[in-house]
Specification:
35% of the residues lie in helices and 30% in strands. It is elongated. It is of the alpha+beta class and 124 residues long. The structure holds zinc ion.
Length: 124
Amino acid sequence: MFVDIFVQKPDQRGDAINVVDVVCDGVKDAVGVDDRWFALRAVDWEVVKSGSPTIWVGVGQVATEHQRICSYCGRALPLVAFNKAKSLPLGVGRECRECRHAQTCADRDDRKRKRAAKAAKEAR
Ligand SMILES: [Zn+2]
């Protein structure tokens, strides 16, 4: 993941590193990804005498062919971590095997619980 920061400030005062820290903390809160996972791609400054100084932050992810973001846990994982799905463009499913497995287990437990509840009702 990468972060672009462009800061407008009213004067030359202010500590650049401090601003970067604050922005990274904000990004961390916003996307829920720890800041050791992102690279600062660009940081730029401009002194703006009039108007209101603004900070632009761009967050992006480098697209890699052999990775896919799990739609369930949000991790970028290699394609082998996903179940095959021929009908989908990438040839793999949307959720990683781990999430798929957790879901299938949860579904199974759910069905088991429902069946047990039904059986208990009918037994009465
Ligand atoms: Zn997952």
